[in-house]
Amino acid sequence: MSKIHIILQNSKYQRYILFYNIPNLCFINYYKLFTLLFQMHKSLTVSKILSNPSVIQDYYIFLKSKLTCDKSLHIKEQEIFSTFYAEYFKRQQTDYLLNTKIDLYNDRIEPIHLNVIESKDNINRYISIISSISDIKIPTDILEKYLLFIKLTRDKEHDTFLNILVYTILKSNIRNFKSIVTYVIKYRRRIFIACEHKTIQNQSEIEYYINVLSVALEFIERMEYKDLNITKDEYEKLIGI
Fold this sequence. Notes:
Residues 92-229 form the VPS9 domain. 66% of the residues lie in helices and 0% in strands.
């Protein structure tokens, strides 16, 4: 058995051979490629990513040149952020105010208070989509779930869309939403490979909708009776003053 065959039997390299199923490469090229990939993977430490999040984008750029489908990049992203999620996701002190406001309005707010005119089925679907974000650890998966909500509501007028988003967030009752948004902004994958599994989305449009989400959270933080379709007396009764 050749030296190359022996090395490739090593479980560490087998892992990469199974993961990076790249066609049209001869056997010796597989060896060179996976050796390089494995060395680069070892150097991509949690501390390096935390100190400089852009290095992970460099890693994705490198992988993109070696892969043929976005599905493989996505699997690699899952591996990185599922394993070390607790290291990357950090709760911020600014979450306290937002969490408090969501607690205040979650059970009390009604669609009419935000001029939301949607069927109950649609509203429940929106809430289901946004609520699921709290269980997701992968930055790009969180973003794609949010973009699914956008896809269902983007044909609305801007003010109507924003009201639906605010109402959905309040009813979804997600904790530490500002920290989640910061996490996505910092670590989301910006490198994609067009293939049958993935259509590359407009990055400027994605940035816009992330900003819209941030605006919605800020609106909730400062929301009072004058921001709602309600009188001051009705508001005070609503929140139990």
